[in-house]
Design a protein that fits this description.
single chain, elongated, two-stranded antiparallel sheet, 34% helix, Erythroid Transcription Factor GATA-1, Chain A, alpha+beta, 9% strand
Length: 68
């Protein structure tokens, strides 16, 4: 089983190229280039995590309530 993990390959989420999982410093990406492309997409807000109104809670700070 241990040798199977060392040869396990996964598809890069950016380019689709197969890359080794074990020993890959860029996983789940195949290269630093794909890793940086993904980071750029997050920074440009191409990817978003959405939360419905029921998922957002107001923050209550007891210290501030006592001051009022």
């Amino acid at each position: 089983m241990g040798s199977r993990l060392k040869t396990r390959k996964v598809r890069c989420p950016i380019c689709g190229k197969k890359a080794l999982w074990e020993g890959n410093p860029f996983r789940p990406f195949c290269s630093e280039r794909c890793k940086l492309i993904d980071l750029g997409s997050w920074l440009k807000e191409d990817y978003r995590l959405t939360t419905g109104p029921e998922g957002v809670e107001e923050l209550h700070f007891p210290e501030e309530e006592k001051k009022e």
